[in-house]
Amino acid sequence: MVIHSKSGSPRDGGSDPVRGGGDPHYLRQTCEQSLKNLGIETLDVFCMSRVDPNVRVEESVGGMAELVKEGKARFISLSECSAQSLRRGSAVHPLASVQMEYSVFSRDAEEQGQIDACKELGMAMMAYAVLGRGMLSAEPPKLKEMAADDIRAHLPRFQGANVEKNLPLRSALEAIAQRKNATLAQLAIAWPMAQDSRAGAFIVPIPGAKSRKHLEENVRAAEIVLTTEDLAEIDRLVPPGAAYGTRYPVEQMHRLNV
Asked: To the nearest whole number, what is the mean pLDDT of the chain?
């Protein structure tokens, strides 16, 4: 078991972070709070949630490196940062991984160069939201049924005409899953693992699981073999950029790829 903890971002009581949370003092505080909350002495991986545009990434990584020296973390990593920040940060201290949204619906890591940087630096990529935040699960979530605190209620891909345009993409993938005797969710989890070998980088999908049934279904995704022909078909049906709507609200997109 590997315990991976992210720093989060400071908030002013509202829904939007007030800054990126890259200050070394803040990172120390959140690391130590995580250790206290978990009742352990060392995190296997401590990850900075976003690169702070007001703090040089070298300074942030330097602060995290001090936590490694003190035995409070074994490895450190970044999340949703640019390929340039990965290279700059790794020059200060080795980075174990980068965490990014990556799925058939969200392929920024290919287009922006993060996967290439991982291959170059010998890092892993942790792919979150591999189920397209539910769009690639058993039943696509409906906006009117979402709870008030459901983040997806604010995501453009689940709004108005966008969701209607994304459903045909889902249906195309579902047909491939049926041919593979798999669920759509299993296909969605198997896809980044197949990309792993094609890209020459180490990609780890991290799907959520709210029940034992979902956990067991997720694990069986490792048994699915996607051939070169399968991957080419998926690329044809759902190419990079095919999903309608940005993956975060437009006003928050500037916090990605920093």
From this structure: 91
Q: Is the per-residue pLDDT at 19 higher than 70?
A: no
- Model confidence at 209, pLDDT cuts 50, 70, 90, reads confident
Check: CB of residue 26 under 8 Å from CB of residue 32.
no
Task: Kindly report the three-state secondary structure assignment for every residue of the chain.
Answer: CCCEEECCCCECCCCCECCCCCCHHHHHHHHHHHHHHHCCCCEEEEEECCCCCCCCHHHHHHHHHHHHHCCCEEEEEEECCCHHHHHHHHHHCCCCEEEEECCCCCCHHHHCCHHHHHHHHCCEEEEECCCHHHCCCCCCCCHHHCCCCCHHHHCHHHCHHHHHHHHHHHHHHHHHHHHCCCCHHHHHHHHHHHHHHHHCCEEEECCCCCCHHHHHHHHHHHHCCCCHHHHHHHHHHCCCCCCCCCCCCHHHHHHCCC
CA dihedral 64, 69, 74, 76 (to 10 degrees): 20
Which residues, 6 or more positions from 82, have their beta carbon under 8 angstroms from its beta carbon?
A: 51, 112, 113, 114, 257, 258
Asked whether the predicted pLDDT for residue 17 surpasses 60, the reply is: no
Which amino acid is present at 147?
A
Tokens standing for residue 74: 């074994």
Q: What is the pTM of this model?
A: 0.90
The answer to whether 43 and 5 have CB atoms below 8 angstroms apart is yes
Burial class (CB in 10 A: 0-12, 13-18, 19+), 112: middle
Closest among 105, 109, 111 to 126, alpha carbons compared: 109
